[in-house]
UniProtKB/TrEMBL annotation:
Native source organism of the sequence: Musa acuminata subsp. malaccensis (Wild banana)
Transmembrane segments: 34-53, 65-85, 105-126, 138-158, 170-194, 206-232, 244-263, 283-313, 333-350, 362-379, 430-451
Membrane disposition: Multi-pass membrane protein
Annotated compartments: Membrane; Plastid, Chloroplast envelope
Keywords: Ion transport, Membrane, Potassium, Potassium transport, Transmembrane, Transmembrane helix, Transport
Main location (coarse class): membrane
Record domain Cation/H(+) antiporter central: where: 505-646
Gene Ontology terms: biological process: inorganic cation transmembrane transport; potassium ion transport; proton transmembrane transport; regulation of pH
The Cation/H+ exchanger transmembrane domain, residue ranges: 52-442
Name of the featured protein: (wild Malaysian banana) hypothetical protein
Amino acid sequence: MADQGNTTEPILYCYKLDSISSGGVWNERPLHKFAIPVLLWQMVLAVIVSRGLAFLLKPLRQPRVVAEILTGIVLGPSVLGKIVIHEAGIPVSLGEVVYPAASHRLLETMGLIGLLYYLFMVGMEFDLQIFESWREKVIAIAAANMALPFIVTLLAANVMNLQPPGHVNYLSQVVFIGSATTVTSFTVLVRVLAELKILNSELGQLVMPSAILSDLMTWVLLAATVVLPASAGSNRDIAPTKFAFLWISVSGIAFTAACWLVIRPTMCWILRRTPEGEPVDDVYISVIATGVLAVGIITDMIGFHAVYGAFVYGLVVPRGPLTIGLRNRLEEFVIGLLMPIFLATCGFKADLSLLNTEDKKGAAVISTLSMIIVLSFLVKLGSSMAIAQYNSMTAPESLSLGLLMNTKGPIDMIILNIGKHKQIFDVRMYTVLILGSIFTMAAVTPSVAILNKTSRIRVAHKRRNLQRCRPDMELRMVACVYNARNVPSVISLLQMSNPTKRSPIFVYALHLLEPTGRASAMLIVHEIGKSKGQRQVVSNPSGGAMQSEQIIATFESYEQHAGGVSVQPVTAISPYSTMHEDVFNIAEERHSTLIILPFHKQLSVAGDFEDINPSIRSVNRSVLANAPCSVGILVDRGLSGGGRFSVSQFVEHHVAVLFFGGPDDREALAYSWRMAEHPSVNLTVVRFLPGEEAPVPPSPSLSCASGEHAAMTVVEDDSMQRQLDDECVNEFRLRYVSDESVMYTEKVVNNASEAVAAIRAMNSIHSMYVVGRGQGRESSPLLAGLTEWSEYPELGAIGDMLVSADFGAQVSVLVIQQHLGDDVGGFMEVMAASESPKLQVPRYFDNVNHKSRPGGFSDGWSAI
């Protein structure tokens, strides 16, 4: 059956059963008469055109589904069908030559097979446990986005006197139109949120469950509508008996119950037979994948559309290794090849020429449907914004929420295709609804991207560096790991940081992964305490999922045995070029004070540095350049004791802080305060001071008045930095004056050579050096010349020297860079705000020549 315009007259296609494959181009024309060559040519052409359109639309931030639907419109009667060519002197449509009418059914069948597997994968992606944590506003958003557009559709259809064809049930048509305009395609929504890096933001966590609930409500309503008699005169659509509706409903309920009570326990049994950490056997994967076709047959036979069976079948698949195995084997073929064909056939059925009509009835239908589409969009937008504003969300977030709830995609294409198949829509109505979905999809992503970009003003929380964070306050930090080998050293650093109930540490353990295959960029927040089957699965081949589980388990074990530490594991899957944005987003949204990054090189078995991945270095540099808080790069050279850690048997560590001055060194000293409180950490602070023979930093050689002012500003800034250094060091010394585990010394050196020699001569018992990266001390005479030979500029001059092969000692290094906000001080301000009385700090050094003055400290302190 085929429709032309507003008619639903049947067109009879004749198939020659023996014309399957050709004898080759040397004997006949295979692209004209034979099914296999025609089908393969059409599939290849559809995929090539869709990829080309996706490439062209990518700068406009258009989802790929838009390109795939437009492919069908381009190759269908709307564009290709209007081009006339001559064959043997006879004018024929180019569309009929490329896509002959007799081949449509075969191409649609291929698309339907892809649709079955796509809906099966969609069902697997649904996390039904999200129901446990839904809040009232999520239910309110989903209900409003479901009910209000339906009410608008019903009222508009009634006011505009939208009359369905005589053979179509009025309620069925209204419900199908309402479903198509109401549904939120959560599969496209996930990709939009991941692309914009807001999947795990407050907005993303609100819109995702709202979209899922809205989708489920739509599917339930649609499943009930599909069983309604869609035709009053077609034997194919009419129920043969008056009890057919009842039997169809009972059969649907029985099928759903069988899936949950029989098929799901069987799949759980398969998982129990699979050894821990091993993939599911290929035999089971093949059987379950074949089951998609079987359930499609069953639901089609009982009166439902085949996609309903595939969707329910996907819902019952237990999350874990089974979903990973199925997704890895199906995703590339289904989403990369079959779904573009299905979406192309959706666009192929539309005919834009039918919109240019002088028929008053046709024009009325077009205007009515256009009004319904616009009103539904505005109602969904307005209701979401109203609920968001009621819950104290900002205006940009409220508008973004409303736009995201209007996300369209394959789901509404499925609804429209079912309606078209059941002849609820004619070609004109179908074309209007298809265009409405395309325009909505095209508007949502760019609009949300603009809103997200303009509203992402970094939150200026007060404790974006360690100097502004009191020792008795919670320290929030983002600990990044690129692989499982980074975890023990990070945990060792956390242990050395002395987390206690009085001074707790909240750690966002961020596992950074590069997507492989068709894995989408996304952020996954894991919940500590859940089993593997309950946690959201990391869909990343090449061991990414297994490695994430291992990392989560390690941090979970550490949190359970350590006091004063809370860990929130997060997995970020994104290309290395944008990976730093994930780090920024987590640090900003969670108000973190410190970001810890592993060095891009690790110790090999032989004890040498080996480069794990050069891209990691680029990520670290990008984070250092634009981080919203302080950053530390951890160079692990045995800090974790051979990759093992034990909370109960914490080994003694000797830590040395090398203080040359400047904001980064003050930040390094501030971090060492926490270490100094640990009973198993012995801390040595070495301050390097310029001697009398040290060269004076050159002043800017500027002659104009503005230049003289700039030179004075530089001198004043240097003087202020020295004053801040003195205040920071003196406060530290006064705090730990009687602590025997803390040692403070001063080294007077005249140049970089003497500084390096002094560091080399230090005691070899130290397990870690803590140094500043060196912002603001580029003109220091004590480091002159070191930066010119730096192999790793991201570590600063001193850090680079400590990790070089020439240094000799195999010592771990923590290089810290302070976040410089609106003020560069804050150390004394923090102490003044603490609960203890304000300490009067004496000035033991002259701010100009740094010579020692009278006054002293107790035993355990020395000056060299």
